[in-house]
Design goal:
It is a single chain. By secondary structure, the protein is an alpha+beta fold. The chain has a domain at 37-164 and 196-235: Sandwich (Jelly Rolls), CATH 2.60.120. It contains two helices and ten strands. It has helices at 45-59, 89-106; strands spanning 37-40, 72-73, 113-125, 131-134, 141-146, 158-160, 191-193, 199-204, 209-211, 221-232. It is globular and about 65 Å long. Bound molecules: fe (ii) ion. Residues 134, 136, 209, 225 line the site of fe (ii) ion.
Length: 253
C-alpha cells in the first residue's frame, strides 16, 4: 500500500490581527475553521478483498445493530480492536502516519504529545441502513477509512454538522423550511463526504456526524472507524496543563 503524505504544516507564525479591508469593500472572512482532513490512499485490491472478507466473517450472521435500519457496528458487537487484527494492522499503521501529520498541521508539538488508539471497529451498512447523528465524547480525534464507495455518495455520505451555526444569526434559520435564509458557504447547515474506497477522513471527535441511508441497492457500505486519544508524552517531566499524563504514569484506584 502506498502512502499519500499530508503536506507538512506551515512554519509557525505569530498570531496577527485580521488584515484590514480596502475602503468601500465588504469583506467576509472565515473564522475558526474546523479541521476536516481527507487523504486518498491506494489500497491493494487483494488486501482490500481480504479485509472485506474478514469483516464479513466478524459480522457473522448479524446484519444490523440490532434495529434493522441501523448499520452493524463492531463497537457494539465485540469487534472494537480491529487494529490488533493481522488483516488491518498495516492499514492502521498508515492511518496513524496521517493522524500524526494532521496533529502537526493543527500545531501540536510532536515531542510533547502521545497519540493512542482507543478503539477501532468496522461499520457495515446494508442498503437502506443508516448510522444516526452522534459524536464520540470518549475520544479526541476520530478517523474513518472506507473500503467501499465510488465517490458518488449513493452508498451513504458521512454528514457533519457544525457545533454551533452562528452565521444563521437567528437560531433555526439554516435548517428551517421556506427560507428566508438560502444556503451559502456561510450558512450551510451541514457538510457531506462521499465515501470512496481508500479514502481516509480525520476530524475532531466532538463533531456531530451521521451516515446517510445506503441507497445503492446491491452494494454494502464498508468502513473502519478509529477513536484516538491524546495524552502527554511518557517522557515529559511536567505534563502540560489540561493534557492528561501518559497512561504509564496512571495508577488504577
Ligand atoms: Fe461516529
Amino acid at each position: 500500500m502506498v502512502t499519500d503524505h499530508v503536506e507538512d504544516s506551515q512554519p509557525q507564525q505569530p498570531l496577527q490581527p485580521l488584515p484590514l479591508p480596502v475602503p468601500g469593500a465588504l469583506v467576509i472572512q472565515p473564522l475558526f475553521p474546523v479541521a476536516l482532513a481527507q487523504v486518498q490512499l491506494r489500497p491493494d485490491p487483494l488486501d482490500l478483498a481480504v479485509q472485506l472478507q474478514t469483516l464479513h466473517g466478524l459480522r457473522g450472521a448479524a446484519s444490523s445493530n440490532p434495529d434493522p435500519g441501523c448499520a452493524w457496528t463492531g463497537d457494539l458487537n465485540g469487534v472494537w480492536q480491529l487494529h490488533r487484527h493481522a488483516a488491518f494492522a498495516p492499514l492502521i499503521a498508515e492511518v496513524l502516519v496521517h493522524a500524526h501529520a494532521y496533529l502537526q498541521q493543527l500545531g501540536f508539538d510532536h515531542s510533547q504529545v502521545a497519540l493512542h488508539i482507543q478503539r477501532c471497529w468496522p461499520v457495515l451498512s446494508e442498503p437502506g441502513q443508516v448510522v444516526g447523528r452522534h459524536h464520540h465524547p470518549n475520544a479526541h480525534l476520530s478517523a474513518v477509512y472506507y473500503l467501499s464507495g465510488d465517490g458518488g455518495g449513493r452508498c451513504g455520505c458521512l454528514r457533519f454538522w457544525p457545533q454551533r451555526q452562528v452565521n444563521e444569526l437567528v437560531p433555526g434559520m439554516a435548517v428551517g423550511h421556506g427560507g428566508p435564509l438560502n444556503p451559502t458557504r456561510w450558512s450551510q447547515p451541514w457538510v457531506d463526504v462521499a465515501p470512496r474506497a481508500g479514502l481516509l477522513v480525520l476530524f475532531p471527535s466532538c463533531l456531530d456526524h451521521a451516515v446517510l441511508p445506503n441507497e445503492a441497492d446491491d452494494e454494502l457500505r464498508a468502513s473502519i472507524s478509529l477513536d484516538l486519544v491524546l495524552t502527554a508524552s511518557a517522557d515529559v517531566p511536567l505534563p502540560p496543563e489540561y493534557l492528561a499524563p501518559h497512561p504509564v504514569h496512571w495508577q488504577q484506584a
